[in-house]
């Protein structure tokens, strides 16, 4: 009878999270979409991206016409007194008004042309940075999601272990009372029970902490989550070779793309600063209307309309050496960006290798731990039977239980490690999207 109880307990451990949940559990895509709308980190990245989009019209403005309108009106009170006493004192009071329209069109300004190109580069850079924020959100959501599931699994394993040890404790007490066992068995079982009780308290606290992390992402209480299906089996990545992933990371990884755009920007900055040596040519046109009251007694007021159109050439000759200094500064920044690009490529290669090895090693671990769970279950069943016939002790049973629960806990951890490693591998190539979460969703219980 005792063996049947143990078999039942261990058979339901894997179902406590899988089957014992409401039908309306949220899946990974549900949580991701909630975080997409609520996560402040991603929302800040979106706002930063929107701000960076304005760099393009700002750069274009330097190539377009500049127009201005000015107008004025003034009251004049003029006194005119001659040094010749025979000429009478003269005082006039009159209004004068003016309006002017001016338009300037840059014809050739090297710095403005390069600034427009830099605006395009800054927009491309912001696109890459926003894509990084999107990938980061996917990774943070999946990490928080499976951290909650793993914490719940650990709690379930701990509770099941506590139940099994509690039964051993009660049996030890009964055997001691009838004289079939020593007090040592009771003390051993009590010690194990107290230890697993402390582990249960820690596991409950960990579940609460992991839920709080998830709530920080979605901005609402954490819902019940859909766990991996019972028949979930990790599969190798596609392509199932390291070097193609390394090459992808080196060429299309987002960190590499950002570093490349930075290098482009600073190379353009060198050209822009050198452009300060170039002459500038502008076309301009001005129309002015001026009206004034009589400036002297007995005279009439005047009206003046004038139009001007022309070209203006400006040739910089010497500006105190500031242009050459800025060029040297830009060259140094360009060299730094070039080194940052090389570092980004090497780091991307390393991340791809780590991700690929993480996926393949997790697959091997899952397979090995699945076999270990089966073996430890058989060992526990045999140990319980041996205890019943007197060839095994209660300590042997407790040890066998500990090994089984440890193997089950490690198996759950290995499965979640596989998913996390797979997502990081895809992210290293800059290709992680919601479609990858949809794929993982197909591995969850419906």
| DSSP summary: helix tally | 11
CATH 2nd-level architecture of the largest domain: Up-down Bundle
Biggest sheet layout:
4 strands, antiparallel
CATH fold title of the largest domain: Outer membrane efflux proteins (OEP)
Biggest β-sheet: strands ordered side by side in the sheet: 1-2-3-4
Q: Residue share in helices?
A: 55-70%
The overall number of domains is 2
Distance between the termini: 35 Å
The CATH class of the largest domain turns out to be: Mainly Alpha
In what range is the share of β-strand residues?
A: 5-15%
Number of strands: 4
Q: Strand pairing plus helix content: what structural class?
A: alpha+beta
Shape: elongated
The CATH superfamily name of the largest domain is Outer membrane efflux proteins (OEP)
Question: What is the H/E string?
Answer: HHHHEEHHHHEEHHH
Characterise this structure.
- The protein has 446 residues and is α+β, with helices and mostly antiparallel strands.
- The protein folds into two domains: 2-63 and 109-278 and 316-441, Up-down Bundle (Outer membrane efflux proteins (OEP)); 64-79 and 90-108 and 279-315, Outer membrane efflux proteins (OEP).
- It is built from eleven helices and four strands; from the N terminus they run ααααββααααββααα.
- The chain has a four-stranded antiparallel sheet with strand order 1-2-3-4.
- Helix 1 packs antiparallel against helix 9 (322-389).
- It is elongated, with a radius of gyration of 39 Å.
